[in-house]
Every structure is written in structure tokens, then in C-alpha cells.
């Protein structure tokens, strides 16, 4: 198959699915809508596999490209609608279409009782199309188009049940918060265009040789990177713009799994990895990325400790894990960021879908305080969720262990890293282990806290269980694509770090300090520390919530105010409301009451009055009296004659 | 043929007569209220113009002016037909042909 054909089918399949379901949006036939949408996603996945398989083997190209047409050709700026699958986007496209297909399949069961399934699947397909634009576009503008498109779909799907005011508001919050980030992204694009005269990724990177590493804060590359990172903080929910993601849980649960855990929110990480050689030239910008990432990882994990909504816990966990990815980017471990992106997509999609299964089985109950003991009602959901749980808390040999440990190791060992980043990551990991264990315990273990006469939890149907099982398998084995060298050496057959090898040359290499290049013992020690701390933390949580369920209440009563502070999400929303939104509203109100009413309105009224006055004077000329008109004509003719003959 | 006892009639005489006729016609259009009389006045104006054409044609030895007169007469005939039709309609409605009834056409 020619590359053009591959890309056409890959991109257009979800678009066709969108049109099919979008045009018959009133239909309630969820089976047909779901089948078409899932089929479209599956076609995309198949095409991705075909495309990526071209990159394997001896003498295989490092990328396949297709240029469809020239979108805009101006003097300086020429934008092509062209796409590329290289070693970075190959990973992304497989994850997005693969996990995407599974989530579409899950949705068929989950949305079977919904009022508007066709509309839902249309949006889901549209999201997939835009996400593919974002991933495959070979220049920043195509990426931006997809970037905005996924933002729109995210808004539509968060507010899918828009008759509930709170859910509609959550959609708007996501949209507005993302606008702030997108403005930064646009500015970054402008700076990059000014610097390189091109928006094409390959061209930008090929021109970097003429630049040297910037030391200050105001260099053009540093500025570009910081602006782009602002865009990433919006889309990928980092401090200070992360506030929209927890609220985004108002959308249907599969949407949370697809958009707000596995794919869209990782777009910021992907963008930075794409431009990794550029970021390497701006150490200060990278330090900002790493610091924000570390702060986010820690802060979101702490907030996650005291949430009661099963999806909110997972949402803060997502924010925190995205923080790890940015921490990795910031210390120069772009490969580790991609690795964690992929494994996180597996286990977090798994857990979100698991929570969807729980919510579905519990008849829309989301409060984990009203669950408990679900293990015996939902054995398969429990088993798959269990795998997600040990994957995220980093128990070897499950996926999260490899990727999170790689990030922690590079945060420690990279030239751009520091012990503090490592420590923040470690505490974050311990916190993660605690809140995830708490979530497991309150949901699945211990005694049931619901009224068994009223609520009858039940296991979901096959369309929901198949994705869970597949994702559980991926979460279990996904980590083997990036086995660290120290472990590979002692294993039989000495498996290498496949992912590192795969991405070598496509992304900037990790700037390891000399001392750490061969510090095998150190790596073992750090690995041991992080695994044992996470394990200890999980055991503590287990003892808290399963062995002695009265202990948490006693424990938090020691410092009730701190607990309430964490429970209220560190009051960040309140802080933004008081410090940013309220002053903005007040200023707008003042501008409206004074500037608008007294100056702008008045000015237009005066103009209107003048026009009206002139009009009412002039209309006396037009009486409808024929002879008066004839007189005007005659007088006019006389005037003309006088002028001509004078 | 002896011509000396006659006043030598030149171009300016024709033009003066024409101007006088035109002015009379115009005053008629502007001042009379009867549609029929107004149309007659218009006819007078048109013919004043015709007279100018013919006079110029005669004194400049150029037939273009006379040809033009045919056009004017044709248009005048058409105009009279339309105008009379309007006048008849107005008369049927109001039993009078006063120009002010046309004001009812105002939107």
C-alpha cells in the first residue's frame, strides 16, 4: 500500500464514523452506532499496525510520510497538510488507536442505557480523528489544529449530559482553562516561526545546529520552550492549569479513560518529546518543566489522598502521573517520558474503565464510602483493577514499575536532574501507593457499606469485560519494552532496553552525569528504596482501610484542619476564584457599568441621534407630491444649466 | 421674390419661441392639478424641444436633428398612452383626475 492510502484510511475512518453517527444523531440504536464507531477505530488501529510494521526490519525507513496538499502558501510561510509516522509518533498512534478501540468497545456496553448513543459515538470518533491529526501532523500548525480539535471534543464530551448544570459548567471550565494554555502554545509557535522560518518538525530540528545552549531566561529558544510549555500545562493538566481535569470527570467514564487519562492529556508530553532537541538548548526552560512536573506529581497525589469520588481519585492520580512525565522531560529523559506515557495509558485506561464498570454495576454510585466488598460481586473487574493497582504503585514486574523507576533514576542521575526531583518523585510514589491502595480497599475489599437490599452490584457484560482483560494484560507486560540495563544483565538472555534502542536518534539523549553513567549499584539502591517505600506505603494503607477501618478516622482527627484542607483540594479552586476570577468579574462589571454605559453606549447613541435628526429633516423633502418632485427636477436642471453655461 | 419687407427670421427667434413654449409647458406641469392638462403641458415641453431640434437642423444644414424629432414624437406617443391609462384608472377610482390622488400610491 502506498503511504498516501495508509494515511487516508487511518485518518478518514474515524471521520467517516463521525459523519455516519453525526448525521443520524437522534437514533437510539446504540448497537449500530457503537459497531460503526468501534469498527472505524479498529480500522484506524489496523492501518496503524500496517504503517508501523514498515518501520521494522533491516534497512527499514525511520519514517513514512505523506503530503496531501499545500494548505497555505505565502511568501515566507508554507503549510503542508502532511503527515508522518516516525519512531515517536508510531508509539503514540498505536496507543491512541489501540486503547481507543478498546474504549469504544467498552462504551457500547456502558452507554447502552443512554438517551443519545449516536451523538456520543459521533463525538468519540471525532475526537479520535483530531487526536490522529495532532499525532501525525508533521508541522506545528497541523498539531495545533488537532490540539484545538481534541479540546473541542473534550468540551463536548465532558458536558455530554449537559442538562445537568454542573456538568455543563465542568465542560466550560475545561474549555476556558485550555484556552489560556492554547494562547501560550500559539505564542510558542510564533516564536518558533520567527526563529526558524518554518513550522515543520524535521526542518526545525535540522536547523538547530546553528544555535548553542542558552543560559539566560530571555533567549528566543528559552522563550519558545516556555510558551510551548504553557500550552502543555493547559492540555496536560499541570500546575497551575490542572484544575479542569478533576472536574472533567463529569463526562461519561469511558471518555475520562480515553481523553482524560490515556490520550489527549498526554499531548503536551508528546509535543515536548517531539521537540526534545529544541528543549535541550534551553536548560532554564527544562528546569521549569521539571519543577512544575515534580510539584504537580506531588501535589495532585496529596489531594488524591482525601477524595471520596472514585473518578476524582483517578483524576488526581492522572494529574500526578502526568507530572512524572513532565519531570522526565525536564531532566532530559524524553524516552522515559514516552515510556511512562505508554504504560500509564494502559493502566490508567484500565482503571478508569474498571471504575466505569463499578459505577455501572452500582447504578451510578461514585462515592467510595458507599462501596466496599465489591470483590465478590465483580470478580473480573476486581482482578483487572488489581493488576492496574499493582502496575501504578510500581511493583515489579508490572508496567508502572519500569517506567516510573526509569523516571526516578534519570531524575537522580541526569545532569539536569537533582536529588530534590528524585525525592519529590519518591514521596509522590509513596503517596500514590497509599491512595491507590485506599481506593482498592474502600471499593473492593472489606465490608460492604451499601444497602444490599436496595443496591445489587453486578458484573458488566462482555463488551465491557473484554477491554478490561486486554488492558490488564498490557498493564502486566507493557513494562517489558523498557527493561533497564541493570535488570536486563542479570536476566537470562540479557534482554536489552528495546524502547531506548527504538527511540535512539529520534529524541535527544539523556545528559547523564559522568559519575552516574556506570553507577549500577546506585541504580539498584534507588530502585530498592522506591519499591520498598511504595510497598510499605501500600501495606500501611491496607492496615488502615482493611484491617482496622476505624483507624483512618482516628488518624485524621489528630489534625482535622489539615484533613479538611486536603479534602477541599488544597482550596486551589477557591484561591483562583477569589484571586483571579472574582477580580476579573469585578473589573468587567466596572467596565460595563462605567465605560460601556457612559462612553461607548453614549457615543453610539449620539451618532444615532444625529442620523435620526438629519433623517427627519431630510424626509420633509419627500412628500409624495408629484409636482413638488417635478419642481426639484426643474430647479436641478436650471442649476446644472447655470453651471454649464456660466 | 422680394423679402425686404419681412423681418429677417434667424435662429435666435426660433430658440426664443422654443424657450417660451418650454417655460409655459413647465409651469403647466408644476402648477396645474389636472392630470390631463399636465400631460398636455408635457407635450408642449416636448414639442418645444422638437422645435429647437428642427431649428438647429435647418440652420446647420444637418438632418440629424430632424431624425431625432421622430424619436421624441414616438416616445411622446408612448408616454401619452401610459399617462392616459393612469388617468383613466385614477378617474374610475375617484371620479376626478386630480394629481393629488396619485399620492395614495405612497407606501
Summarize the entry for a quick read.
Chain A has 646 residues and is mostly helical. In chain A, 70% of the residues lie in helices and 3% in strands.
Descriptive notes:
The complex is a heterodimer of chains A (646) and B (107). Chain A is an all-alpha fold and 646 residues long. Chain A has helices at residues 3-23, 30-53, 87-110, 117-136, 140-158, 165-196, 201-206, 220-235, 244-247, 253-262, 267-274, 276-280, 283-304, 310-330, 334-361, 379-392, 399-413, 419-444, 462-477, 485-490, 498-503, 520-547, 551-556, 560-567, 572-618, 626-645, and strands at residues 64-73, 78-85. Chain A has a two-stranded antiparallel ribbon with strand order 1-2. In chain A, helix 3 (87-110) packs antiparallel against helix 4 (117-136), helix 13 packs parallel to helix 18 (419-444) and helix 16 packs antiparallel against helix 18. Chain A starts with a helix and ends with a helix. With 107 residues, chain B is an all-alpha fold. Chain B has one domain (11-105): Helix Hairpins (Orthogonal Bundle). Chain B is 73% helix and 0% strand. Chain B contains three helices and no strands. In chain B, helix 1 (11-31) runs antiparallel to helix 2 (35-60). The model of chain B has no long low-confidence stretch (mean pLDDT 88). The chains are: A mainly alpha (646), B mainly alpha (107). The A-B interface holds A 624-627, 630-631, 634 and B 26, 29-31, 33, 99-100, 102-103, 105-106.
Question: Secondary-structure map with pairings?
Answer:
The complex is a heterodimer of chains A (646) and B (107).
Chain A: H1 3-23, H2 30-53, E1 64-73, E2 78-85, H3 87-110, H4 117-136, H5 140-158, H6 165-196, H7 201-206, H8 220-235, H9 244-247, H10 253-262, H11 267-274, H12 276-280, H13 283-304, H14 310-330, H15 334-361, H16 379-392, H17 399-413, H18 419-444, H19 462-477, H20 485-490, H21 498-503, H22 520-547, H23 551-556, H24 560-567, H25 572-618, H26 626-645
Helix pairs in contact in A: 1-2, 1-4, 2-3, 2-4, 3-4, 3-10, 3-15, 3-19, 4-5, 5-6, 5-10, 6-8, 8-11, 8-13, 10-15, 11-15, 13-14, 13-18, 14-15, 14-17, 14-18, 15-16, 15-17, 15-19, 16-18, 16-19, 17-18, 17-22, 18-22
Chain B: H1 11-31, H2 35-60, H3 64-94
Helix pairs in contact in B: 1-2, 2-3
Amino acid at each position: 500500500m502506498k503511504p498516501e492510502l495508509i494515511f487516508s484510511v487511518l485518518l478518514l475512518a474515524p471521520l467517516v464514523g463521525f459523519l455516519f453517527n453525526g448525521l443520524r444523531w437522534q437514533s437510539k440504536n446504540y448497537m449500530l452506532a457503537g459497531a460503526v464507531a468501534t469498527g472505524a477505530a479498529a480500522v484506524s488501529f489496523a492501518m496503524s499496525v500496517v504503517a508501523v510494521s514498515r518501520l521494522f526490519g533491516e534497512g527499514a525507513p525511520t519514517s513514512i510520510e505523506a503530503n496531501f496538499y499545500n494548505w497555505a502558501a505565502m511568501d515566507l510561510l508554507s503549510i503542508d497538510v502532511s503527515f508522518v509516522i516516525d519512531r515517536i509518533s508510531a508509539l503514540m498512534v498505536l496507543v491512541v488507536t489501540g486503547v481507543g478501540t478498546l474504549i469504544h468497545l467498552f462504551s457500547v456496553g456502558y452507554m447502552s442505557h443512554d438517551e443519545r448513543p449516536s451523538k456520543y459515538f459521533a463525538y468519540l470518533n471525532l475526537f479520535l480523528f483530531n487526536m490522529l491529526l495532532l499525532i501525525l501532523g508533521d508541522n506545528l500548525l497541523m498539531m495545533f489544529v488537532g490540539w484545538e480539535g481534541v479540546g473541542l471534543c473534550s468540551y463536548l464530551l465532558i458536558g455530554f449530559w449537559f442538562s445537568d448544570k454542573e456538568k455543563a459548567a465542568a465542560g466550560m471550565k475545561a474549555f476556558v482553562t485550555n484556552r489560556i494554555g492554547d494562547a501560550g502554545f500559539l505564542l510558542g509557535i510564533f516564536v518558533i516561526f520567527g526563529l526558524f522560518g518554518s513550522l515543520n518538525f524535521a526542518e526545525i530540528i535540522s536547523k538547530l545546529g546553528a544555535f548553542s545552549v542558552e543560559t539566560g531566561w530571555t533567549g528566543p529558544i528559552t522563550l519558545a520552550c516556555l510558551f510551548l510549555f504553557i500550552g502543555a500545562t493547559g492540555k496536560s493538566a499541570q500546575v497551575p492549569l490542572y484544575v479542569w481535569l478533576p472536574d472533567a470527570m463529569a463526562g461519561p467514564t469511558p471518555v475520562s479513560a480515553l481523553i482524560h487519562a490515556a490520550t489527549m492529556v498526554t499531548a503536551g508530553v508528546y509535543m515536548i518529546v517531539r521537540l526534545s532537541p529544541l528543549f535541550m538548548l534551553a536548560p532554564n526552560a527544562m528546569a521549569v518543566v521539571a519543577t512544575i512536573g515534580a510539584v504537580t506529581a506531588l501535589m495532585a497525589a496529596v489531594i488524591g489522598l482525601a477524595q471520596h469520588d472514585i473518578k476524582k481519585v483517578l483524576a488526581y492520580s492522572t494529574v500526578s502521573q502526568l507530572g512524572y512525565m513532565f519531570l522526565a522531560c525536564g531532566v532530559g529523559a524524553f524516552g522515559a517520558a514516552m515510556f511512562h506515557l505508554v504504560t500509564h495509558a494502559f493502566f490508567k485506561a484500565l482503571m478508569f474503565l474498571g471504575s466505569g464498570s463499578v459505577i455501572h454495576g452500582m447504578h451510578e454510585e461514585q462515592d467510595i464510602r458507599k462501596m466496599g466488598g465489591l470483590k465478590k460481586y465483580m470478580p473480573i473487574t476486581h482482578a483487572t483493577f488489581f493488576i492496574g493497582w499493582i502496575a501504578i504503585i510500581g511493583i515489579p514486574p508490572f508496567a508502572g514499575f519500569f517506567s516510573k523507576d526509569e523516571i526516578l533514576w534519570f531524575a537522580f542521575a541526569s545532569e539536569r536532574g537533582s536529588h530534590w526531583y528524585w525525592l519529590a518523585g519518591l514521596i509522590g510514589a509513596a503517596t500514590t501507593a497509599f491512595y491507590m491502595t485506599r481506593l482498592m480497599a474502600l471499593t473492593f475489599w472489606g465490608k460492604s457499606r451499601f444497602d444490599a437490599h436496595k443496591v445489587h452490584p453486578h458484573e458488566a457484560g462482555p463488551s465491557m469485560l473484554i477491554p478490561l482483560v486486554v488492558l490488564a494484560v498490557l498493564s502486566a507486560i507493557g513494562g517489558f519494552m523498557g527493561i533497564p540495563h541493570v535488570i536486563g544483565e542479570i536476566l537470562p538472555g540479557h534482554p536489552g532496553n528495546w524502547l531506548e534502542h527504538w527511540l535512539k536518534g529520534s529524541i535527544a539523549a539523556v545528559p547523564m552525569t559522568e559519575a552516574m553513567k556506570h553507577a549500577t549499584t546506585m541504580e539498584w539502591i534507588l530502585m530498592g528504596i522506591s519499591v520498598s517505600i511504595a510497598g510499605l506505603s501500600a501495606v500501611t494503607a491496607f492496615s488502615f482501610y482493611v484491617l482496622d477501618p476505624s483507624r483512618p478516622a482516628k488518624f485524621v482527627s489528630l489534625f482535622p484542619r489539615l484533613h479538611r484542607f486536603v479534602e477541599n483540594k488544597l482550596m486551589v479552586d477557591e484561591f483562583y476564584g477569589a484571586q483571579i476570577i472574582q477580580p476579573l468579574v469585578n473589573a468587567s462589571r466596572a467596565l460595563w457599568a462605567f465605560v460601556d454605559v457612559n462612553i461607548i453606549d453614549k457615543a453610539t447613541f449620539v451618532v444615532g441621534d444625529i442620523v435620526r435628526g438629519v433623517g427627519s429633516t431630510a424626509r420633509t423633502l419627500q412628500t409624495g407630491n408629484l409636482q413638488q418632485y417635478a419642481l426639484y427636477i426643474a430647479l436641478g436642471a436650471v442649476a446644472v444649466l447655470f453651471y454649464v453655461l456660466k | 421674390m422680394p423679402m425686404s419687407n419681412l423681418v429677417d427670421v434667424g435662429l435666435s427667434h426660433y430658440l426664443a419661441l422654443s424657450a417660451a413654449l418650454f417655460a409655459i409647458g413647465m409651469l403647466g406641469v408644476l402648477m396645474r392639478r389636472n392630470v390631463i392638462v399636465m400631460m398636455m403641458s408635457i407635450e408642449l415641453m416636448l414639442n418645444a424641444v422638437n422645435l429647437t431640434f428642427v431649428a438647429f437642423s435647418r440652420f446647420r444644414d444637418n438632418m440629424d436633428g430632424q431624425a431625432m424629432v421622430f424619436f421624441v414624437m414616438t416616445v411622446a406617443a408612448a408616454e401619452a398612452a401610459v399617462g392616459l391609462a393612469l388617468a383613466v384608472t385614477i378617474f374610475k377610482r375617484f371620479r376626478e383626475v386630480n394629481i393629488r390622488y396619485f399620492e395614495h400610491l405612497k407606501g
